[in-house]
Amino acid sequence: MADAFLLDPKQTALVLIDLQGGILGRQTAPHSASDVLARSVRLAERFRGAGGLVVLVHVSFSPDGGDRLTPPTDEPPPPAATQPGWDEISADLARDPKDIMITKRQWGAFYGTQLDLQLRRRGIRTIVIGGIATNFGVESTARDAFERGYALVFVEDAMAGLTNEAHSFAIKTIFPRLGRVRSTEQVLNAIRG
Questions:
Q1: Which residues of 138-161 are buried (b: 16+ CB within 10 A; e: fewer)?
Q2: What is the DSSP letter of 31?
Q3: Would you say 89 and 101 are in contact if contact means Cβ atoms under 8 Å apart?
């Protein structure tokens, strides 16, 4: 694709979804969770170095699980995690004091959080998104961002699904209708500053 793909770090946020203890240990495809994390670390370092905003999103619940969604479904969610550190963002991301931390209670990172407010107050117009899982947390957050008018860039190799098919469906069918799909290298090269 031969377009002039450039990102202004002052108006762009890197939003990383669920790169936390209890999720990074899962089997993912087509990219391993460790590869997704390594690429996300590179992206976060580049954004921070260029003066851009990094948003670290994790899912967590109250000790009694009372804030979990529990409507009837054909496939129930995994049981509430109880092991210590399951909801802690990976230390590899080396959280910076300027980063924003968002705690969500469902797949998407906008509903019931301050994500939209914090992005708008900082003049953010574009979201570069990655994380796990492609067709759950990433896609839910992206759909909501699109409906709020944000431009989206999906970092294909800095996200992964629980299956290759699920990841590929979102990458080929959904994400091109919501924004632009790029690689980690293309995003790193596009950041000005």
A1: bbbbbbbbbeeebbbbbbbbbbbb
A2: S
A3: yes
